[in-house]
Inverse folding.
């Protein structure tokens, strides 16, 4: 550097520029100049040097400059706090704030902003609340930049209610602060709450910018609110923001992920230009809906247009690989572009090979990883679970924890789901404790997973406690509670929660209504289900296919077949489940003719039956006593559709048993390619009692004793058979066998 005189003002500007551009070598030269003129001890220039070294990642040099200052003012302290924060040392940053107080140094608004940033980065909610108290006491709570930082801190600490209160107490409504909150809510998977913020902004007449619209569209993706997304799209066009590439890319993403691929492509084609983000958004939508070939076509078109793929591109592509050949081909392309050592791509490769069941290939990459982080471990655990290898998934989870790998929200959710699947309450409880230590229990996704895990593990009280402690009772949380109760068959508790939801004016979405109706079906709560149907009609969502299918099931199980038929007729799209549900309802009423009429209609409409469909057909044949039709149906099922399981054979046994053709029933039972279920033996015993066949009953009795299940009913049935035949010695023998079995138990 030439020996030229540099003024204080010029030196300050240059040091600041070095910090912004992270030009450490130039910054050190400027530091030498400051030392030459003795300005490095000047509080203002010294503060600039502290800030510059911090921005360049040299925190030791920042501290050294700070320590040599002749006088430390609020600016120099704030610069050091910011330097610590930006270099991932938030705890030291907060310690600096405390030291300021001991030196009677009064923080200013910028100090508070930097300190709040430090709190947010380590989720130090207690410290953040304390800083908030001082902000209010010093009158900084009307400063918009401070308010925005408070909102961001609370949101990062998963205390969105407190963030919202800060905004609601603000005299002048601030678009930036609301948008900040929306962004954090979207990041945490609280899409409904983010849309709630958007609604409040619109009611207050706040003008929305491109960032706000982008957050709103992402929230729509989160909760699959396509109608709100379309309304936002219309507003975007009205505001002339459709040419904004960031907004346009988010629109592409929203339509694609909500299943409206054609609209996504339309927006994509109308963009002023398509960058790699645009292509990635379109591809991510294709991946979500299993359109693998379209993903690979996108890669080809990108290459033709001269757009270089990014690691994100390859993460999308690897997620779409559904066979080993395509997976290996894509791995080769990844290597060609030099992304094989990229952390995101490496994790995607592990995930792909695990998904394809190529565990050796997956672990070859996993073991070579420089850092086996939470993402990589989660891929292994999740894919083991997908392959129903619960023990392997659980073992990997234990190894991850034992090796001290820091867990993120995704790994907590995955781990809790595995615990739920294998019903490992102890491990689930330990994960809960870890989430509390990491201050992320209040994350909405973790709360939902904890509720699911506890209910699956029959620890209902703990599930309710998690729900009660949740600061935000979101629709997702209510839904998780209701769904888990339904899946576990806790009918009465589900209905109680539904009542509490209504009392608390908690809104119910399509899926919550569907689960609620299922709970009513299981509990036989006809009146409650009809009330839900009325609510669905009032909300104008009655024709939603998921709800209509559920209503068919609800009315069919409650025996109201006229209502079930009405709901069935209103369906715009009927799948095999819908048809089978209605057929099962008619079968339960013994409507033999109607069941087979529905079956023929279903086939004419091009809907292929499944195993459950044939189970309904065989069941109605059994209860109607139509042996020939039952046998004909069984043969067609096996020969035309290759369906055959133990339940189908049990039905055939029942058909012959009810018709008195006991020999045929016993032959089927003895020659089953499956282990006969206890119900099958019980069915034969019942038929033997009806037709008085003691000899066959003896064989069935022995088979029933050798199977698992409720043997009390078996003993009683056999006692009745012998008693009816006046075989009193055999009655006493069976009675003694029963007493012996009780003593063994």
């Amino acid at each position: 550097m030439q020996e030229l005189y540099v003024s204080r003002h010029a030196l300050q500007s240059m040091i600041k520029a070095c910090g912004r551009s992270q030009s450490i070598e130039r910054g050190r030269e400027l530091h030498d100049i400051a030392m030459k003129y003795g300005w490095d001890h000047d509080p203002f220039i010294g503060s600039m040097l502290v800030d510059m070294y911090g921005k360049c990642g040299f925190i030791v040099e920042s501290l050294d400059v700070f320590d040599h200052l002749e006088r430390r003012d609020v600016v120099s302290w704030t610069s050091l706090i910011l330097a610590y924060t930006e270099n991932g040392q938030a705890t030291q940053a907060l310690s600096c704030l405390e030291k300021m107080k001991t030196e009677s140094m009064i923080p200013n608004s910028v100090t508070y902003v930097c300190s709040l940033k430090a709190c947010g980065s380590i989720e130090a909610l207690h410290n953040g609340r304390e800083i908030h108290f001082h902000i209010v006491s010093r009158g900084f709570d009307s400063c918009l930049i401070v308010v925005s930082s408070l909102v961001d801190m609370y949101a990062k600490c998963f205390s969105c209610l407190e963030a919202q209160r800060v905004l609601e107490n603000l005299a002048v409504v601030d678009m930036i602060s609301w948008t900040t909150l929306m962004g954090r809510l979207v990041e945490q998977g609280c899409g409904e709450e983010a849309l709630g913020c958007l609604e409040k902004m619109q009611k207050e007449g706040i003008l929305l910018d491109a960032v706000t619209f982008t957050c709103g569209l992402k929230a729509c993706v989160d909760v699959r609110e396509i109608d709100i997304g379309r309304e936002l799209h219309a507003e975007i066009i009205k505001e002339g923001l459709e040419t904004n590439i960031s907004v346009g890319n988010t629109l592409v993403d929203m339509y694609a992920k909500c299943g409206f691929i054609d609209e996504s492509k339309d927006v994509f084609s109308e963009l002023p230009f398509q960058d790699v983000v645009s292509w990635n958004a379109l591809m991510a939508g294709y991946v979500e809906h299993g359109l693998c070939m379209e993903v690979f076509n996108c890669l080809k078109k990108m290459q033709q247009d001269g757009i270089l793929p990014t690691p994100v591109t390859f993460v999308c592509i690897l997620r779409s690989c559904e066979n080993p050949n395509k997976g290996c081909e894509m791995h080769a392309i990844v290597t060609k572009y030099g992304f094989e050592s990229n952390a995101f791509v490496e994790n995607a490769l592990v995930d792909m090979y695990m998904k394809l069941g190529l565990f050796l290939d997956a672990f070859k990459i996993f073991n070579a990883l420089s850092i086996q982080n939470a993402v990589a471990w989660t891929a292994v655990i999740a894919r083991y679970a997908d392959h129903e290898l619960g023990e392997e998934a659980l073992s990997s989870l234990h190894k991850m924890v034992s090796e001290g790998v820091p867990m993120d929200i995704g790994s907590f959710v995955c781990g809790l789901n595995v615990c739920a699947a294998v019903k490992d309450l102890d491990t689930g409880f330990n994960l809960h404790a870890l989430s509390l230590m990491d201050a992320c229990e209040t994350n909405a996704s973790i709360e939902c997973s904890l509720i699911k895990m506890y209910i699956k593990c029959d620890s209902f009280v703990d599930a309710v406690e998690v729900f009660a402690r949740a600061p935000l009772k979101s629709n997702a949380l209510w839904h998780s509670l209701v769904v888990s109760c339904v899946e576990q068959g806790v009918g009465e508790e589900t209905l109680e929660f539904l009542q509490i939801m209504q009392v608390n004016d908690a809104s119910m979405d399509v899926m919550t209504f569907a689960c609620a109706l299922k709970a009513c079906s299981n509990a036989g709560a006809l009146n409650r289900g009809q009330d839900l149907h009325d609510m669905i009609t009032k909300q104008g969502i009655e024709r939603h296919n998921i709800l209509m299918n559920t209503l068919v099931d609800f009315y069919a199980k409650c025996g109201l077949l006229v209502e079930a038929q009405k709901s069935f007729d209103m369906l715009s799209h009927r799948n095999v489940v819908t048809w089978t549900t209605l057929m099962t309802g008619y079968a339960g009423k013994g409507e033999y003719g109607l069941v087979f009429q529905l079956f023929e209609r279903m086939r004419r409409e091009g809907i292929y039956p499944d195993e459950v469909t044939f189970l309904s057909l065989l069941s109605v044949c059994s209860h109607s006593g139509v042996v020939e039709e039952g046998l004909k149906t069984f043969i067609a099922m096996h020969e035309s559709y290759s369906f055959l399981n133990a339940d189908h054979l049990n039905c055939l046994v029942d058909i012959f048993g009810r018709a008195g053709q006991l020999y045929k029933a016993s032959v089927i039972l003895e020659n089953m390619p499956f282990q006969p279920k206890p119900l099958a033996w019980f069915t034969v015993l019942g038929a033997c009692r009806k037709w008085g066949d003691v000899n066959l009953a003896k064989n069935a009795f022995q088979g029933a004793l050798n199977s698992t299940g409720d043997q009390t009913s078996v003993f009683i049935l056999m006692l009745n058979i012998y008693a009816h035949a006046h075989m009193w010695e055999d009655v006493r023998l069976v009675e003694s066998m029963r007493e012996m079995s009780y003593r063994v138990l």
